[in-house]
């Protein structure tokens, strides 16, 4: 049996997404993919898993990258391609009495990840907002109602990506 769950989690909340996937596994729903703003799950026996998410830039070394995780006991679950890279989803069964494991064991690697995410998503958000503002300006004389709608959308994008930038910057400062 499969289940789809709509859940909007922004890139600055990777920990929240991992906790959500852990919780679903404990209820017997195992993450299989992400598409159309929905998490897809397969039903099974409830189990304790630790899900970890990484952002992998496309550098041509994906086989070695996946082998490294496999050697450490992580199962590759799904890769979501976006912005010349992929969100990589991994999971590992939690051993009885053992603490949950993480793929990032030092602050330097976590900071490097956050800097990559901040850079890519800030540029993406700025480009989208700029395109919307240009569209709004182009429509100001032809249709004032469209102008207002596009301008509001641009402002929402600026607020959303601005919030992500600030939160990720705080995370970087905490770990630096």
UniProtKB/TrEMBL annotation:
Source organism superkingdom: Bacteria
Record field: transmembrane: 124-141, 147-166
UniProt KW keywords: Membrane, Transmembrane, Transmembrane helix
InterPro entries: DUF2812
Protein name listed in UniProt: DUF2812 domain-containing protein
Lineage: Bacteria, Bacillati, Bacillota, Bacilli, Bacillales
């Amino acid at each position: 049996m499969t289940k789809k769950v709509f859940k909007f989690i922004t890139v600055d909340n990777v920990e929240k997404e991992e906790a959500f996937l852990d919780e679903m596994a404990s209820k017997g729903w195992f993450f299989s993919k992400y598409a159309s703003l929905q998490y897809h799950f397969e039903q099974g026996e409830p189990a304790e898993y630790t899900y970890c998410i990484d952002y992998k830039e496309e550098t041509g070394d994906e086989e070695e990258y996946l082998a490294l995780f496999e050697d450490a006991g992580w199962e590759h679950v799904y890769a979501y391609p976006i912005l010349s890279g992929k969100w990589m989803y991994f999971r590992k069964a939690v051993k009885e009495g053992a603490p949950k494991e993480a793929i990032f064991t030092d602050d330097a690697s976590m900071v490097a990840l956050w800097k990559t995410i901040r850079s890519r998503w800030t540029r993406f958000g700025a480009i989208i907002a700029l395109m919307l503002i240009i569209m709004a300006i182009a429509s100001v004389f032809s249709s004032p109602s469209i102008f207002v709608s596009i301008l509001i959308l641009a402002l929402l994008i600026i607020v959303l990506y601005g919030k992500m930038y600030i939160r990720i910057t705080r995370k970087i400062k905490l770990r630096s």
